[in-house]
Amino acid sequence: MSSGRQALSRLETWGLLAVCALLTAWYAYPQLLFSLYPLYELARLLFPGWLPDFSPEARSILHPPGHPG
Hints:
Elements (H helix, E strand, L loop, with lengths): L9 H37 L8 H8 L7
């Protein structure tokens, strides 16, 4: 290895790994939420009344207020 080039220091390596992990988590966050939804619905079925039902809000995305139909 030439004197002008150095290997990454341990701190730089951990910093690069942390940045990559944060970017991956940011990208995967929506997929994680969608993958947990069936478990949420199962918990709602097992423990009725404990967790709110989000289906009215989900329907409002498809049919906004004031939208006919």
